[in-house]
UniProtKB/TrEMBL annotation:
Keywords: Membrane, Transmembrane, Transmembrane helix. This is RND transporter. It comes from the Bacteria. The chain crosses the membrane at residues 48-69.
Amino acid sequence: MQLLNNWRIIILLCLTLGLAPFLPEPHIWGKLKWIVGGAEGMQAADWFDVLLHGFPFILLLRLLIVKLFPSKKN
């Protein structure tokens, strides 16, 4: 659980896996533009690619939500 709450690790994942390859544009950005454009011609591998490169950003969003809305269990 410590790993999922480590800002440094998640930011590093976003900057590396999330954005790689960087040129000519970040891979996830190209896939998101493709989806917004209607996702015409996307194969299963392309959707897996979106999931793989988007997962660090999902972790970052999760961490932001956990930090902004702390649990009231304690």
